[in-house]
Amino acid sequence: MRRFYGVSLETPLMLGTAQYPSPAVLEAAFRDSQASVATVSLRREAGKGQAFWQIIRSLGVHVLPNTAGCHSVQEAVTTAKMAREMFETNWIKLEVIGHADTLQPDPFGLLEATGVLAADGFEVFPYTTEDQVLAGRLLAAGAQVLMPWGSPIGSGLGLNNRYGLKMLRAAFPDVPMVIDAGLGLPSHATDAMELGFDAVLLNTAVAQAGDPAAMARAFGLAVQAGALARGADPMEPREMAVPSTPVMGKAWL
Amino acid sequence: MKIEVNGASHEVQAATVAGVLAELGWGEARVATALNGAFVPKAARGTMAVTEGDRLEVLAPMQGG
């Protein structure tokens, strides 16, 4: 696995902390998935923030704060600065949302905010699309990791543009990349890992499953399987059948 | 004076961000602050003046994806 700003993750699974039925289920999901990163956010203090922080600390994983819900560069940059102080990390999952329905990244705002934050010492994980031109510009602006979407946040559709993601992976072979958002099933996560991505980030697929802990475990196994398969150099698909049982020595009956 | 804290109107006596936090019971809490849309680092809260009509955001760790 490629390193994320110098950090080698223990497992290629990043898990969100939102939408779980209870804190106990959240803890079970992290334990059973063996996720190595937890995403968190900042919201107005309404009495529950301090206890939540203790839960996150007890998980013993890397913390990746996000700028979820930010629609402008100014909002995202200010949120990132607040998150850096709060969570004591330079990592920031940078979201600059451009469309209310698709929650698609605003590529122009994302690029600008990436430049501002990278210059300020942040280690930016930009939530982006599979667009190769944008990816190149984000890297030039100082990002050393990319987080292309699988499909829109919370949709569970899997890899919506598999071809585009494959091309993105091939275009920047040395850049650590995380498929972030839109995964619904463990097979989607396996697919992403088989394509050569370094990790996946998901939340809803686990938190909203009927049995979040079981689904978390399934995703944990799925990313392991995908990574193992990628490392094992998969065969090339063929259009025609090729017998696997030897033809030589077959009886003349 | 009257200021806005997390979107709600508050009457406060304190003249600094740190003072307002203490007055509202967040003196020891793990929070991050922004005044009128600009980040106020923890170390600057004691000297950052708050004036009538200011908007103070007090944020805490929260669930996120």
UniProtKB/TrEMBL annotation, chain A:
<keyword id="KW-0784">Thiamine biosynthesis</keyword>
<dbReference type="InterPro" id="IPR013785">
    <property type="entry name" value="Aldolase_TIM"/>
</dbReference>
<feature type="domain" description="Thiazole synthase ThiG">
    <location>
        <begin position="5"/>
        <end position="246"/>
    </location>
</feature>
<dbReference type="GO" id="GO:0009229">
    <property type="term" value="P:thiamine diphosphate biosynthetic process"/>
</dbReference>
<keyword id="KW-0704">Schiff base</keyword>
<dbReference type="InterPro" id="IPR033983">
    <property type="entry name" value="Thiazole_synthase_ThiG"/>
</dbReference>
<comment type="function">
    <text>Catalyzes the rearrangement of 1-deoxy-D-xylulose 5-phosphate (DXP) to produce the thiazole phosphate moiety of thiamine. Sulfur is provided by the thiocarboxylate moiety of the carrier protein ThiS. In vitro, sulfur can be provided by H(2)S.</text>
</comment>
<dbReference type="InterPro" id="IPR008867">
    <property type="entry name" value="ThiG"/>
</dbReference>
<dbReference type="GO" id="GO:1990107">
    <property type="term" value="F:thiazole synthase activity"/>
</dbReference>
<protein>
    <recommendedName>
        <fullName>thiazole synthase</fullName>
        <ecNumber>2.8.1.10</ecNumber>
    </recommendedName>
</protein>
<comment type="pathway">
    <text>Cofactor biosynthesis; thiamine diphosphate biosynthesis.</text>
</comment>
<dbReference type="Pfam" id="PF05690">
    <property type="entry name" value="ThiG"/>
</dbReference>
<keyword id="KW-0808">Transferase</keyword>
UniProtKB/TrEMBL annotation, chain B:
<protein>
    <submittedName>
        <fullName>Sulfur carrier protein ThiS</fullName>
    </submittedName>
</protein>
<dbReference type="Pfam" id="PF02597">
    <property type="entry name" value="ThiS"/>
</dbReference>
<dbReference type="InterPro" id="IPR010035">
    <property type="entry name" value="Thi_S"/>
</dbReference>
<dbReference type="InterPro" id="IPR003749">
    <property type="entry name" value="ThiS/MoaD-like"/>
</dbReference>
<dbReference type="InterPro" id="IPR016155">
    <property type="entry name" value="Mopterin_synth/thiamin_S_b"/>
</dbReference>
<dbReference type="InterPro" id="IPR012675">
    <property type="entry name" value="Beta-grasp_dom_sf"/>
</dbReference>
